[in-house]
Design goal:
By secondary structure, this protein is α/β, with parallel strands linked by helices. Helices cover about 40% and strands about 20% of the residues.
């Protein structure tokens, strides 16, 4: 839905939410009233800490394990202009809106106050999801999110029955007993129930881990809508005829069972825009595998594999290289100008890729198989099979 006006440097997410670039600062407006300034755009990953990312499922978790120096004025280090930063924020909030205000996609310190302000402004979508988002994030049990929501008084937006349901979640009970500093924001009846439940919850022992393996994978290649559509097809089994333009990186999570192993995939979908290419090694550090995408109807997108691999391998070093599968994205409209599979396989082999596959986000053909093939390679590389 987003529209922009170059003269005013304005981006309209919807009738309630607008971003403006003013005096080289990105400001958020709700119904014409300034709300706040965005703080984070991209994530800077310290190379020494890449193994700490095994269990992240939200921007909150990623932000706490990543370098927050982007907030402290080091955008110049990455040569990101205020205008590029502005469009990055626009992209992030547009994606947040398109995903029904999913609070995992932006930091809690912005997501919940912004969502509450949208509710107060009359946004019907915000009204529909506000309480649901509070409940979902409480049930997730992530400590800083649970403590933030309770200490900031968000429990008062849920009714008694909704709160009783959340009490069934062990992670919520454990974290509320450890991290809550202000019980004045907890209803007295709820506090009494929590005190009774804590001893019983603490006696519970989880004997089996949720996953046998957690793998971080990177998706990269020239900019194009089909890559994002393919990822959406895999995660939702739906085809969208449009997709938003990513700036920086999208983070998604997918769980699957393959060959008897329960695996969680952390999918980092890297933007193919040339000006952000230099950031690829930063996100690739600590990855277990990657998919290089090209458009089967666009030879240049395949020819650019050398440029992408050069940036990747120079940035992370030979010792950090992981399995890479070359993926050709095809459609029924590509037949006349389509790159032959034989030619693509030859190029993939000559670049030491670990596999090749063609798939279609429109029909879903080979989409699941693409991620399963990479997962098997990562399981093998990890020594599990």
């Amino acid at each position: 839905m987003g529209k922009h006006n170059n003269f005013f440097s304005e981006f309209k997410v919807n009738d309630y939410l607008i971003l403006r670039l003013e005096n080289n600062r990105t400001n958020v407006y709700i119904k014409g009233k300034v709300f706040s300034q965005c703080k984070f755009l991209l994530l800077s990953i310290p190379a020494a800490n890449v193994r700490e990312f095994d269990d992240i499922e939200s921007i909150d978790e990623a932000a706490e394990k990543l370098d927050s120096s982007m907030e402290r004025g080091t955008l110049k280090k990455y040569k990101i202009t205020p205008k590029e930063e502005f469009w990055g924020h626009c992209s992030n909030l547009q994606a947040w809106y398109e995903n029904d205000y999913n609070t995992r996609l932006i930091h809690r310190n912005l997501a919940f106050p912004l969502l509450r302000a949208l509710v107060e402004a009359g946004d019907p979508l915000a009204k529909r999801v506000f309480k649901e988002e509070i409940a979902i994030r409480l049930e997730s049990g992530y400590p800083t999110v649970v403590s933030y929501l309770i200490n900031q008084g968000y429990l008062h937006y849920l009714n008694r029955n909704e709160l009783i349901t959340i009490l069934e979640c062990p992670a919520f009970i454990n974290n509320i007993s450890k991290y809550i500093c202000n019980y004045n924001n907890v209803p007295k009846w709820l506090y009494k129930k929590i005190r009774k439940l804590i001893p019983r919850r603490r006696r519970q022992v989880i004997l089996k881990p949720d996953y046998d393996a957690t793998f971080k994978i990177i998706l990269f290649g020239d900019k194009g809508e089909q890559k994002t559509q393919l990822v959406q097809r895999y995660l939702t089994n739906l085809f969208r005829s449009y997709s938003r333009m990513t700036i920086g990186v999208d983070f998604l999570v997918k769980s699957l069972e393959i060959d008897g192993y329960r695996v969680k995939l952390q999918v980092w979908d890297f933007d193919g825009e040339e000006r952000f290419k230099f950031l690829l090694p930063t996100y690739a550090r600590g990855a277990n595998g990657a998919l290089f995408f090209y458009d089967a109807a666009n030879y240049l997108s395949l020819a650019h594999i050398d440029d992408w691999l050069l940036v990747l391998r120079q940035g992370i070093g030979q010792e950090g290289i992981f399995p890479i599968i070359v993926v050709g994205i095809v459609s029924e409209l590509d037949d006349e100008q389509r790159i032959s599979a034989e030619e693509a396989i030859k190029i993939a082999k000559s670049r030491d890729a670990d596999g090749f596959i063609e798939c279609s986000p429109r029909t879903g053909e080979n989409v699941g198989e693409t991620f399963e093939a990479l997962t098997r390679l990562m399981l093998t590389r990890s020594g599990m099979v």
